[in-house]
Amino acid sequence: MGLFNHTVAGGGFILIGAWESLTSSSVPLKNSSQPPTSQSPAHPTADKHAHDSVFSSSLTFVLIMILSFLFVLDSLLSFFDARSSKDTIGSVLQLQVIAISLLFFLYSVLGLMTRLRKSFVLPSPVLNLVCLFAFVEEFLLFFLQRKDPSGVENRYYDMMLVPIGICAFCSFLELKNPKWGYTKLGRGIGLILQGMWILQMGFAFFSDFIVHGCSLHEKSRGNYTVKCKGHPEYHRGRAIVTLQFNCHLALLVTVIAFVYSIVCKKNGIGREHMQYRPIGAEMQHLENAGHGHFTLDSDEDDSENGIKEERNVEMQKAIVPVPESETNGYHNSP
């Protein structure tokens, strides 16, 4: 696979992931934007939403079918090239890619038949299980692919395990709840990241953006390795790969936040804050209502002051007035 093949593959993954993310998130957002009603009559837009869902899923299966077919064709060309070059590792590697592509092709065909033909009934867990097996096999392909233990491309393959693992995990969650839209949303984001990383590998392997001090060595069309001059170049190459992956993650998070804000604005999700009154006005209303009646003295202080006043009155009543003559120590006799 050259730069053109990586570009087509990466663009296909990004297109499928973006479409699946948008279609899986648009329906929950529209449902949340509509206020609940006490009565639930048959709405004319319900059939329209169902028709749009069938169309969107069918289009997703068509895109997966086309991309899987292109992978099979490219792997067959690489297989015959490896056979002519007497590269046994390259030929075996292409057979693994063909097996994974055929699994995704089978998944798309079964999905299309389920959506378009009502007579063909296939449980959704069976379809999701085929998708899960395909992602697991893809994960094992990149996890066990070590043609050259010292090659820099192994670091790219290690980073590829992250988006594949996300897709496999979301497919596993979809087995339990097929109607949960967040699993498809997560899988779509994983496909987008996988496509971005395939594009990055294409530019890193087959263009001038390769790491300085490293070069590409091809044994056949699908069997290649990236070798560097010395040990420092290998460490720098692996560090650059990690930095590139972090940049792709940051870019993906930024794009997701931007698109999410647009979708929420389109569906009216941002207007929910109008249901609440500003807290400043509420506090000002409380201050005006309680002005002049608020005191730091508690009811206990008032009761204590009342008790003290009653005691003072009793003490004043108990005082007996003493004549002035008695105060000098004598008194006049009658």
Terminal-residue CA separation: 139 Å
By DSSP, the count of extended strands is 2
Radius of gyration: 38 Å
Order of helices and strands: HHHHHHEEHHHH
How many helices? The count is: 10
Task: Describe the sheet with the most strands.
Answer: 2 strands, antiparallel
Structural class: mainly alpha
Task: List the strand order in the largest sheet.
Answer: 1-2
Low-confidence stretches: 36-52, 326-334
**Strand coverage percent:** under 5%
The gross shape turns out to be: extended
Q: What is the average of the pLDDT values?
A: 78
Gist of the model:
This protein has ten helices and two strands. It has 334 residues and is mostly helical.
Kindly describe this structure.
The chain has 334 residues and is mainly α. It is 73% helix and 3% strand. The chain has ten helices and two strands; from the N terminus they run ααααααββαααα. It has a two-stranded antiparallel ribbon. Strand 1 and strand 2 form a beta hairpin.
Question: Which features does this protein show?
Answer:
single chain; 334 residues; mainly alpha; two-stranded antiparallel sheet
Tell me the layout of helices and strands:
Layout: H1 3-33, H2 44-84, H3 88-116, H4 124-144, H5 153-176, H6 181-206, E1 214-218, E2 224-228, H7 231-267, H8 279-289, H9 299-318, H10 324-327
Helix pairs in contact: 1-2, 1-6, 2-3, 3-4, 4-5, 5-6, 6-7
